[in-house]
């Protein structure tokens, strides 16, 4: 209860405890307040009153003036915390509602976040006639009071004054709270944060200065393939490190797991030396069941997380297994029980399971990155790095997990992040490591949009509008090729904020037309990948002609018959005969998509450029992606889907503005069996324009030069290197936001790419892509279809 002295100058706070003795806030040097049931502050204690006088904060006459908790905290709190009273009022109202509905014996202890605050809500029966109800509001840095002193930071401890019992029910008659000094709690956090922040900053700058700049040019100038691959590996690994330093959320990109393992295996310098100290000189990888599509967060960055796990395990195998000069590592993949993940199992053939499980198993079982004070626990370094990377591959950052005793016991989606498995090997057993990768998804259908539409559950995920909004910032929940929304929903959403967090292929169903031209419309009755792509192509064509796909092949000639309506015609034709008047597409006049084996028809293509032209050799990605060798052997539905995907790639126009990429690819040559051209020319023939070298000069051109490279409504995607934006800002006194806004008005989707892994200052609607992903397009000669898939899956999350 509260007792107020006659003059009101001194107010003595007492709280009735079980033994009915009084508790003095002033004796404990705490700031305290009491409010009535209408949430109006009625009194404060002497300590708080003295603090307000010292800081020239007006002390209201609580007997005369009704001042709400919200208004009172606006007076005493400073800076970004001046609105904490609104948060407190809202949570006290909710707690009051719960108290008055509390059933006999019902208790609650719930911890939840709200913005930068952590809120602990407690309802606890002490006995039949006593119920305690409290709200604790804590911020990592403490809630800041007015004034410049850093030590004036507090935690808010607030309780309800309650009357009643279980039989009659409970009623809240008032509230009281204390502002508990938080500085002693905050200081260790600041020290550890400074230490980890220092490491993060150094890692981010290492990626930027050494990786994105020095290593990039060393890699471009190198001629030995093994060294090129190793330099690339180092540069991409640095970007992964920068991603952790900046807590960059990464949306998922589709990749073939077998191709990822093959790319990893090609890094001969790495595998010849990683276990050389243990006299292991050769490491081979055997993939089993890995010809599967997976969704890797961050694309190239996700690959590096996968490589990190393998490298760590290989080092342990060499140290503890002693395999001899040659090591054989098996990587297998199978469906996880939830069908949303792919389980990966890696094992060696050293037969060391019994020895390793005892020590490593214990480390994994009790795994923690830091102690209760946030200090790094310096042990089991390799196991921890594997665990961190395995979590990233699930779209999970460890800091987002519940703070349980051991991270090794975490089971998001009821699956362990990292686990040990014993693999049989005669009398002895091999030690296997298990982790999980995300599977790509095809179609997300928001409930309310599928009236009269049939579909198969294994291809279409149906979710509610509430689920969609709740998961917009989740890196892995929305990894679908298509998102289909009800038309009436478009009028309710803040489209610019919502669509930047969704994949690029957006379709709507219903009668309400969208307010944004980037939406397509689904008019079909049967929903599957084929019909979704068909409707999407109709949107891209915008009334234009469907292109014709031609595979230049010296050994085959003729047309593939596609059964589905709305698919492009597909031909095989001798690539030394493209100029013939007898070509069946000549009279039709439709735009062409040409995949030219060995580039035999390049001179024809240079004279009259098709919509898309890709020469390829036997080992080019185009060969496997386009599936030229087996295209006519695919089942009809897959064949038609592939044709639609290739047509989508051709119809998608892309601009890349990057000073380094423009400079290097303007001089580096692509050489095929029958053709040679710069990579800049090669990619222009794919429908990807490259510019920006003028921003590497001493005099930085003004923004009007940038805008002149971007004609209105030509490009579906424009990518700008963050360095160009910074140079424009520094040289021409124009904000990054202003440049981005001007470019956004001219293109379908603006994307900023950088090796710094930071979205700082990027305005709404602008997405982010790691620099290494863009560099890989050119260095590894990605097919246009791969690039378009990556861009359409991109989301701005977090």
Structural account:
By secondary structure, the protein is of the alpha/beta class. It has 24 helices and 37 strands. The strands form nine sheets. Strands 3, 4, 5, 6, 7, 8, 9, 10 and 11 form a nine-stranded antiparallel beta sheet that branches. Strands 13-15-16-18-17 form a five-stranded mixed beta sheet. It is globular.
Task: Please give the structural blueprint.
Elements: E1 2-4, E2 11-13, E3 31-36, E4 40-44, H1 46-54, E5 67-68, H2 69-76, H3 84-99, E6 108-114, E7 117-127, E8 130-138, E9 143-144, E10 153-165, E11 169-181, H4 183-221, H5 225-246, E12 252-256, H6 257-265, H7 268-273, E13 282-288, E14 293-297, H8 300-321, E15 326-335, E16 341-347, H9 353-365, H10 381-392, E17 419-425, E18 428-438, E19 441-446, E20 454-455, E21 460-463, H11 465-470, E22 480-486, H12 487-490, H13 495-499, E23 506-509, E24 520-521, E25 526-527, H14 529-541, E26 548-552, E27 558-560, E28 570-573, E29 592-597, H15 602-607, E30 612-616, H16 621-626, H17 636-651, E31 654-657, H18 659-665, E32 669-671, E33 676-678, H19 679-686, E34 688-691, H20 703-708, E35 717-721, H21 722-732, H22 736-744, E36 749-754, E37 767-770, H23 771-779, H24 784-793
Parallel strand pairs: 13-15, 19-21, 19-22, 20-25, 22-23, 23-24, 26-28, 26-29, 29-30, 31-34, 31-35, 35-36, 36-37
Antiparallel strand pairs: 1-2, 3-4, 3-11, 4-5, 6-7, 7-8, 8-10, 9-10, 10-11, 12-14, 15-16, 16-18, 17-18, 27-28, 32-33
Helix pairs in contact: 2-3, 4-5, 5-8, 8-10, 14-17, 17-24
């Amino acid at each position: 209860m509260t007792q107020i002295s006659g003059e009101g100058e001194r107010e003595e706070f007492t709280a009735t405890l079980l033994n009915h003795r009084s508790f003095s806030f002033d004796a404990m040097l705490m700031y305290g307040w009491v409010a009535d049931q209408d949430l109006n502050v009625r009194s404060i204690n002497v300590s708080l009153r003295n603090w307000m006088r010292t800081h020239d904060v007006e002390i209201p006459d609580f007997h005369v003036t009704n001042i709400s908790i919200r208004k009172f905290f606006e007076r005493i709190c400073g800076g970004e915390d001046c609105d904490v009273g609104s948060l407190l009022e809202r949570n006290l109202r909710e707690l009051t509602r719960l108290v008055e509905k509390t059933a006999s014996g019902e208790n609650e202890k719930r911890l939840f976040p709200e913005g930068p605050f952590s809120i602990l809500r407690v309802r606890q029966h002490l006995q039949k006639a006593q119920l305690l109800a409290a709200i604790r509001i804590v911020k990592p840095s403490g809630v800041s009071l007015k004034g410049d002193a850093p030590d004036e930071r507090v935690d808010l401890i607030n309780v309800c004054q309650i009357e009643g019992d279980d039989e009659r029910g409970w009623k809240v008659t008032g509230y009281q709270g204390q502002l508990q000094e938080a500085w002693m709690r905050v200081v260790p956090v600041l020290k550890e944060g400074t230490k980890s922040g220092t490491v993060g900053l150094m890692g981010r700058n290492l990626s930027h200065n050494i990786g994105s700049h020095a290593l990039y040019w060393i890699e471009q100038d190198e001629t030995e393939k093994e060294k090129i691959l190793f330099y690339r590996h180092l540069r991409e690994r640095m970007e992964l490190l920068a991603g952790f330093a900046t807590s960059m959320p990464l949306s998922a990109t589709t990749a073939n797991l077998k191709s990822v393992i093959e790319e990893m295996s090609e890094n001969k310098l790495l595998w010849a030396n990683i276990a050389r100290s243990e006299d292991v000189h050769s490491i081979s990888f055997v993939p089993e069941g890995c010809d599967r599509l997976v969704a890797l967060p961050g694309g190239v960055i996700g690959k590096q997380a996968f490589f990190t796990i393998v490298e760590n395990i290989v080092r342990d195998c060499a140290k503890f297994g002693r395999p001899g000069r040659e090591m054989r590592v098996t990587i297998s993949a199978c469906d996880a029980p939830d069908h949303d993940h792919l389980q990966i199992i890696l094992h060696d053939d050293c037969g060391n399971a019994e020895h390793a499980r005892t020590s490593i198993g214990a480390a994994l079982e009790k795994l923690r990155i830091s102690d209760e004070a946030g200090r790094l626990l310096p042990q089991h370094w390799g196991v921890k790095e594997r665990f961190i990377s395995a979590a990233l591959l699930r779209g999970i950052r460890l800091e987002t997990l519940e703070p349980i005793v051991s991270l090794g016991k975490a089971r998001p989606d009821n699956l362990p992040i990292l686990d040990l498995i014993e693999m049989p090997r005669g009398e002895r057993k091999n030690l296997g490591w298990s982790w999980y990768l995300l599977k790509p998804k095809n179609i997300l259908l928001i409930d309310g949009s599928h009236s009269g539409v049939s579909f198969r559950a294994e291809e279409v995920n149906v979710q509610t509008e509430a689920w969609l909004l709740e998961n917009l910032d989740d890196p892995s929940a929305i990894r679908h090729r298509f998102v289909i929304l009800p038309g009436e929903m478009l009028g309710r959403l803040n489209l610019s904020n919502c669509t930047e967090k969704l994949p690029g292929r957006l379709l709507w169903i219903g009668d309400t037309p969208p307010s944004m031209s980037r939406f397509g419309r689904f008019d079909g009755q049967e929903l599957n990948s084929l019909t979704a792509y068909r409707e999407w192509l109709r949107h891209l064509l915008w009334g234009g002609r469907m292109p014709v796909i031609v595979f230049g092949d010296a050994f085959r000639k003729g047309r593939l018959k596609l059964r589905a309506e709305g698919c492009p015609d597909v031909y095989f034709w001798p690539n030394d005969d493209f100029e013939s008047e007898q070509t069946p597409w000549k009279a039709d006049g439709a735009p062409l998509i040409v995949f030219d084996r060995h580039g035999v028809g390049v001179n024809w293509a240079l004279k009259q450029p098709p919509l898309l032209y890709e020469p390829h050799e036997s080992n080019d990605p185009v060969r496997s992606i386009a599936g030229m060798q087996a295209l006519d052997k695919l089942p009809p539905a897959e064949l038609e889907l592939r044709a639609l995907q290739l047509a989508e790639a051709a119809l998608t126009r892309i601009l890349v503005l990057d000073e380094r990429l423009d400079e290097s690819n303007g001089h580096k040559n692509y050489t095929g069996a029958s053709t040679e051209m710069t990579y800049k020319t090669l990619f222009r023939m794919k429908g990807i324009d490259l510019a920006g070298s003028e921003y590497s000069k001493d005099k930085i051109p003004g923004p009007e030069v940038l805008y002149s490279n971007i004609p209105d409504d030509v490009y579906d995607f424009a990518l700008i290197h963050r360095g160009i934006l910074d140079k424009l800002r520094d040289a021409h006194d124009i904000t990054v936001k202003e440049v981005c806004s001007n470019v956004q008005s001219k293109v379908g989707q603006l994307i900023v790419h950088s090796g710094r892994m930071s979205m700082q200052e990027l305005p709404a609607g602008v997405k982010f892509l790691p620099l290494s992903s863009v560099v890989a397009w050119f260095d590894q000669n990605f097919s246009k279809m791969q690039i378009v898939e990556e861009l359409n899956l991109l989301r701005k999350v977090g």
